[in-house]
Amino acid sequence: MEFFDKESTNSKMDTHNKVIININNGKKKLIVSPGNSLLFTLASQGIFVPSVCGGRGICGACKVKVNTDVGDYLPKELSHMSKDEIEDNVRLACQVTVERDIEIILPEKLFSVNKYFGRVVSIRDVTHDIKELKIQFSEEFNFKAGQYVQIVIPPYGQIKQSTQRAYSIASLPSKKHEIELLIRLVPDGIATTYIHNYLKEGDKLEIIGPLGDFYLRDTNVDVICVAGGSGMAPIKSIILDMLEKGLTHRHVWYFFGARTEKDLFYVDLFRDIEKKWEKFHFIPVISEPENPELWNGEIGLVTDVMVKYLERVIDKGTSKEAYLCGSPGMINACEKLLKEHGIDKVYYDKFA
């Protein structure tokens, strides 16, 4: 099956100065213009390889097996590659320039990732630096609780080119025509500055998705969830989905870390879930309380509190799996501590 360069307006394809991207041993062939990265060339043809960082070579998410010699590995690639991946010719699509015919292998699931156009129907502050964004679609948007989307950020202000950033979905999959996102303001961040300072209710957004393998596994074991900041999003979606589907026979322990009281949000929501779900436990943790005499919850690092509960409160005799979302530092510390306590099934999204 061949797909022609979408920029062409000719009824017959002019292959002069074009190159061929051969995908999955000829299952798909794209005839495209050379000169751009493999990541953006594929996106221009409607094939969206995950890229949390928008193609800057930071996240390492856009790994693609390349069966053609495309030159030496770039330094940005090597920091994300294992020895086995290098031996298997796995490359970062954002760091490979399409200059000649190329053969690549892609996971079949990427062919079901699509671009949608949504309308922003609600923008709400949930903390001093996190906004809850609600987006509606005219067509169905189907996803698994825990997955994420990529938002296409248009040019604005001094930003002359569009870019993409990844955000986890915070809402229920059963809401087929809308999603909610949680966006924390990052100082000088291109995407978050646009969302916090330029985006308005009623505006349209391009959304690519759904993406990601972070979702609840089909088991009956107890669940440990740990998140911080806007890492709340996929955990909220997973917990709401479990409640809606009646998966309340499983114990769920949700540890949410915040720096101060003003960084906590959705506390009332999870306290209400505790009343409906006997085996659900919400443990908010503050590391630097502004009013320690008024705060009657846990104080310290969320990882330390998790360990305290694993050793003193949570039943040691049950099997468990963990779901984490937050900064790379928090994820790495959590994973190490969980494995030290016999929990090897650990699933996560890292957001730098």
Describe the structure in your own words.
The protein is α/β, with parallel strands linked by helices and 352 residues long. It folds into 3 domains: 2-110, Roll (Ubiquitin-like (UB roll)); 113-211, Elongation Factor Tu (Ef-tu), domain 3, CATH 2.40.30.10; 222-350, 3-Layer(aba) Sandwich (Rossmann fold). Helices cover 20% and strands 30% of the residues. It contains 8 helices and 18 strands. The strands form 3 sheets. A 6-stranded mixed beta sheet has the order 1-3-2-6-4-5. β2 (19-23) and β3 (28-32) form a beta hairpin. The longest helix is centred in the last third of the chain and has 14 residues, at 232-245. The protein is globular, with a radius of gyration of 22 Å. The two termini are 38 Å apart. Residues 113-217 form the FAD-binding FR-type domain. Keywords: FAD, Flavoprotein, Iron, Transport, Ubiquinone. This is Na+-transporting NADH:ubiquinone oxidoreductase subunit F. Residues 17-110 form the 2Fe-2S ferredoxin-type domain. Pfam families: FAD_binding_6, Fer2, NAD_binding_1.
